Amino acid sequence: MNEMHSVILIAVIAAVTMILRFLPFLIFSGKREAPKYVMFLGDKLPYAIIGMLIIYCLRSVSFGAVSGWLPSFLSIIVVAALHVWKRNTLLSIIGGTFVYMFLVQAVFV
Q1: What is the pLDDT, as a whole number, of residue 83?
Q2: Which DSSP string do the residues of the chain spell out, in sequence order?
């Protein structure tokens, strides 16, 4: 793959991404009300995606040994507790990731 091919590929990917990001704003501008199914998806889809991400992250957890499931379990508790306490998604994700990495690399070596 030469340089020009890479540049064209990146430009096409960037253009398609921008079009997909801007298209809803162009279609549902302030003049028109969004359809009910779009509003329904906007309300329910984030929770469904988070559920799928949790399942994806926990798919390879091994219950054969405590070191296989305890770091994940404790991290989930930290994420939930931080989110209930501070209502800050970024803080919850960073806190849970920190606890998980600490447990995996320092405690359950």
Answers
A1: 92
A2: --HHHHHHHHHHHHHHHHHHHHHHHHHT-TTSPPPHHHHHHHHHHHHHHHHHHHHHHHTT---SSHHHHHHHHHHHHHHHHHHHHH--HHHHHHHHHHHHHHIIIII--
